[in-house]
Fold:
Amino acid sequence: MWVWIAVVAIALIVLVSAAARLLGRLPDLRRAAVRLQRRQEEAMKLQAAGELLERTVLTLQQRAELAQDAVTQIKANLGR
Structure:
């Protein structure tokens, strides 16, 4: 009987020790989760900015092509 009580007591001590360590790390885990959430928000903002930049580059590329076509047409009209 005493052996079983000792085994249960030791198991409870180990369980409480493990739980205390885990609970001690919760603030660190919470801070890490907040940092990850901020980084995710920053990544989404950067992605949106990248998409806007991509659209701007595409527009500029189209304008450059139109300008090149206009230059080619002007040169053709001048007989070059």
The longest helix spans residues 2-78. DSSP finds one helix and no strands in the chain. The two ends are 109 Å apart (CA to CA).
